[in-house]
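User: Can you predict the 3D structure for this chain?
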Amino acid sequence: MMGTVKVERIGEVSLITIDNPPANAMDAPMLGKLLNEFETIALEAVTRAVILTGTGPSFCAGADLKAKSGEALSAFGRLLSAVESSPVPVIAAINGWCIGGGFELALCCDIRIAAREAKFACAGVNMGLMASAYRLPRLIGISRAKAMLLTGSTFDASTMEHFGVTTQTEPLDELLVAAKSLAMRIASRAPLSVEATKRVASRALDLDPAAMRELESLELGPLRASQDHREAVLAFREKREPRFTRS
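Assistant: Here is the predicted structure, written as structure tokens:
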């Protein structure tokens, strides 16, 4: 059976499932489909949150290293950039093994939640390669990151939540329920505000306070003038839920 990427729309949420068990490694066609999906989401301005997960015992093992050419690895690099730069938030629902390039893919997501059964490994040093050496230290600090990066050891879901890689751990049969609840909450917030907040937060570690204040000022101007801001204020006064229109 050939691997595939499944896409399901749940209102304004896109559920994307990597389906190539047992490891959920992705060949070039699968990567192309996934990359196309994220490019479409960026252009359509309809999807307001994305859930990325896997089938079977794995979340993802990254690009298929058995491929004879570098096509899959090149496509995987483009996918990482597309996920990280997605204008809408991406939630990784990590159902099982999350290793190597799959771990890097999870790091590119905005929020990560995991099943209790999930296992994590920075497998670069196990394969004579390197991965996650930039993103992981920025997320959890140098010391903890090096304990993962330099050993290639396997870590469980509880440790990953303790380290700060994930934000919550759920029973496997409740993982997608939790991910959907989180995604729908995000999707119900003011879209322009969510997108602006993601852009600013993603650059927070790179800017000094003066540059950050300038960036926040640039983003806040259009938000203050938006219809969604006026609707939020009116809804607050009228003690009702706001109806955002991304305008």
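The beta strands are 4-10, 13-19, 49-54, 58-60, 90-94, 97-99, 111-115, 119-121, 154-156, 168-170. The CA atoms of residues 4 and 19 lie 5 Å apart.
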